Amino acid sequence: MFRYGYVPFMLIGLNGAGIAVAAAGAPKSWLLVILGFAIATTFLVERVIPYDPEWNHDRADGTRDRIHVAVNETLILASVAAIPLLAAIVPAPQLWPHDWPFLAQVLTAILVADFGITVVHLASHKIGVLWRFHAVHHSITRFYGLNGLMKHPLHQTVEMAAGVAPLILVGLPVDVASALALAVAIQLLLQHSNADYRIGLARYVLAVNEGHRFHHLKWAGIGDVNFGLFTLVWDHLMRTFSYDSARQFDSTQLGMAAKPDYPNGYLRQVIYPFTRSGGCALKATTAANQTPDVSIPDPALKYRC
């Protein structure tokens, strides 16, 4: 039940509940209740069918991750609340398909946001100033639900702006944006969940944890794959998709090989990208199936450290 029912329950059940709440114009606080239920469900499933039981144990990072979640989820909610103000300041042509069924509007918003977020995510692995802030997310050494929102607030803001700004410019309704915000949070839980669930061939299309673990491999260049948030469609088109069913993951393969002592505390992680040591130097790429002392120089990937 947990192995095959977890993903449909989250993607269809809880997102469906959120869409129903948003479409009915109910108080937005109900979306927070649904999100809380999604987090609780994830924690339960991670303990019933863990991919790696060791990842369920706190490593002096639990409180830090909860702070990241609180800050970044607040930023997401604030961006939704700011939509009417932004619409007043920057009048948008009414190109949004208001006459479509509400579900179709939400799915359209998800696909558009997925493209913008994926592009910024890819750029964050290639452009030094973006990597400084994105590196906070890649410092993790265990893979579990709350990792999804374990991000530097500035990078979270840039990613969400890339995903939502084009939608706002064509008249995205607040109710649709609210359902999209919940969908983002639920997807991040699924994508980083320490649950050994099954979705069959859908793993080649949906950006869930099976594929996203490859993205968190710690060696430069090797982890530059599977950038999508909701889908892997753009990764297939950009040829950044990677998957190997035989690959097994543990903590020794996660994090950043070039920065194994990345700051662990919340405030230090927020400040570190602004420091001189928070940048990157030219590093060598280590193949995923080789030991770390066997490296392949790749100047094109100098910022992945």
Automatic annotation (TrEMBL):
<keyword id="KW-0472">Membrane</keyword>
<dbReference type="Pfam" id="PF04116">
    <property type="entry name" value="FA_hydroxylase"/>
</dbReference>
<feature type="domain" description="Fatty acid hydroxylase">
    <location>
        <begin position="107"/>
        <end position="240"/>
    </location>
</feature>
<feature type="transmembrane region" description="Helical">
    <location>
        <begin position="70"/>
        <end position="90"/>
    </location>
</feature>
<keyword id="KW-1133">Transmembrane helix</keyword>
<keyword id="KW-0812">Transmembrane</keyword>
<dbReference type="GO" id="GO:0016020">
    <property type="term" value="C:membrane"/>
</dbReference>
<feature type="transmembrane region" description="Helical">
    <location>
        <begin position="30"/>
        <end position="49"/>
    </location>
</feature>
<dbReference type="GO" id="GO:0008610">
    <property type="term" value="P:lipid biosynthetic process"/>
</dbReference>
<dbReference type="InterPro" id="IPR050307">
    <property type="entry name" value="Sterol_Desaturase_Related"/>
</dbReference>
<feature type="transmembrane region" description="Helical">
    <location>
        <begin position="102"/>
        <end position="123"/>
    </location>
</feature>
<dbReference type="InterPro" id="IPR006694">
    <property type="entry name" value="Fatty_acid_hydroxylase"/>
</dbReference>
<feature type="transmembrane region" description="Helical">
    <location>
        <begin position="7"/>
        <end position="24"/>
    </location>
</feature>
<dbReference type="GO" id="GO:0005506">
    <property type="term" value="F:iron ion binding"/>
</dbReference>
<protein>
    <recommendedName>
        <fullName>Fatty acid hydroxylase domain-containing protein</fullName>
    </recommendedName>
</protein>
<feature type="transmembrane region" description="Helical">
    <location>
        <begin position="160"/>
        <end position="190"/>
    </location>
</feature>
<dbReference type="GO" id="GO:0016491">
    <property type="term" value="F:oxidoreductase activity"/>
</dbReference>
